[in-house]
Write a sequence for this structure.
């Protein structure tokens, strides 16, 4: 990966040229005018663009100088000709008990004609100003901090590019790149649609939080995407190099603050591909999927085998377990077998591995477990190993030797390396296992 700063410099330079020469809103004759007059014309055009947005604007707002410190924030803005602006958001730094709640606040804005054109929000606004307040965000609003920089947010935004549907700014003091795009739906719908899209590829309870980023034969990893500020590195554990990236989530995926590169391919915004199997960059050359194979390997929550999908050898052994279980207790039967972590009734000696769900009476059920190991030898594969002397949990140990022998036989047949095919590359709820060295197949499904 290359340093983001290079792209920022190039991007700002190109955007500045675009601001001066964009044929969408300027005549070539303006180049014969003074710089001051060009700024004035641009101010008039920007005023027209800002106001001419029936549903307002989505502002992808970033803070900080240099490395990513905070996530990106989706703010919303509706401009009026008289200098009034209504801002909205639901971010975690809203005050007065409004954190994470949708809130609107009105104030004033101004277009300042300096060496360039500046959009200024110089009057306190509950939505934006907390990012600018010179107070440590952990201390606001009770404590002032001498010479504090707060969150390193900007309220004066230098225009670097504008068109009818997009305006890009650079924070005047801290240089974050801030982007506004015309809203195509009402603001609360945008928020709900964004949350719905986000839920398709991130898991808020942190059980799934790492991803493959691939471009041809090049692979990197990102960790922490669900927080909106993630890390890109060569490997997940003990990374050799880490780049911090801030992003804003969108109704179709997410967009990074800055342009980056992998294997010579540029990327900034990711959206779902046609069949929603991956997030892809602007030209489809960079692809993101979750490390779902590692997620399945490490997870403790049980996924159950679909009995109908078992290959013949497993189906026969499953019947053998039930036969032995009936001989042990005529009221007992094995409903299903899963992979995950068992939990004994006493809450002790649970095992991560093979789990039996046993019906003990009309309404009673118990889970019994046997340890097994799992690992990922290659992307999308899992190796399962059930040792002959694998540890049993308390519930499994209560069964007689015939039941335990049948369970161990099932585990032995299950041992091997499988190619896995999930129903989702992000949060799979169904995964087909096909043995690479035999006829064994089965499907795991979530409850």
């Amino acid at each position: 990966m290359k340093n983001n700063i290079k792209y920022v410099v190039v991007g700002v330079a190109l955007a500045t040229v675009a601001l001066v020469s964009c044929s969408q809103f300027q005549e070539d004759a303006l180049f014969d005018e003074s710089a001051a007059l060009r700024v004035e014309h641009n101010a008039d055009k920007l005023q027209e663009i800002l106001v001419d947005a029936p549903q307002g604007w989505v502002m992808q707002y970033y803070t900080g100088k240099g490395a990513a410190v905070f996530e990106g924030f989706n703010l919303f803005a509706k401009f009026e000709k008289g200098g009034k602006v209504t801002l909205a958001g639901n971010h975690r730094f809203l005050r007065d008990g409004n954190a994470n709640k949708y809130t609107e606040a009105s104030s004033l804005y101004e277009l300042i004609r300096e060496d360039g054109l500046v959009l200024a929000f110089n009057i306190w606004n509950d939505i934006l100003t907390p990012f600018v307040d010179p107070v440590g965000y952990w201390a606001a609003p009770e404590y002032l901090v001498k010479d504090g920089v707060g969150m390193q947010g900007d309220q004066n935004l230098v225009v670097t590019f504008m068109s009818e549907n997009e305006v890009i700014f650079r924070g005047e003091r801290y240089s974050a790149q801030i982007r506004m795009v015309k809203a195509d739906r009402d603001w609360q719908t945008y928020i709900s649609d964004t949350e719905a899209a986000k839920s398709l590829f991130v898991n808020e309870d942190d059980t799934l939080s790492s991803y493959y980023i691939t471009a041809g034969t090049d692979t990197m990893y990102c960790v922490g995407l669900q927080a909106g500020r993630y890390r890109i590195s060569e490997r997940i554990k003990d990374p050799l190099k880490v780049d911090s990236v801030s992003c804003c989530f969108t109704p179709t995926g997410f967009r990074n603050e800055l342009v980056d590169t992998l294997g010579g391919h540029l990327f900034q915004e990711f959206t779902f591909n046609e069949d929603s199997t991956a997030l892809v960059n602007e030209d489809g050359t960079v692809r993101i999927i979750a490390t779902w194979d590692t997620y399945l390997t490490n997870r403790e929550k049980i996924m159950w085998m679909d009995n109908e999908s078992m290959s013949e050898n497993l189906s026969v052994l499953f019947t053998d377990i039930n036969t032995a279980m009936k001989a042990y207790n005529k009221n007992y039967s094995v409903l299903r077998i899963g992979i995950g972590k068992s939990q004994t009734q006493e809450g002790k000696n649970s095992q991560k591995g093979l789990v039996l769900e046993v019906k003990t009476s009309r309404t009673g059920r118990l889970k019994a477990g046997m340890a097994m190991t799992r690992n990922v030898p290659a992307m999308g594969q899992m190796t399962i190993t059930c040792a002959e002397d694998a540890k049993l949990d308390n519930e499994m140990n209560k069964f007689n030797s015939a039941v335990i022998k049948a369970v161990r036989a099932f585990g032995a047949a299950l041992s091997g390396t499988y190619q896995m095919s999930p129903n989702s590359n992000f949060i799979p709820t169904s995964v087909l296992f096909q043995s690479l060295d035999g006829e064994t197949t089965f499907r795991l499904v979530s409850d």
User: Anything to note?
Assistant: Residues 195-290 form one domain. The longest helix spans residues 4-21.
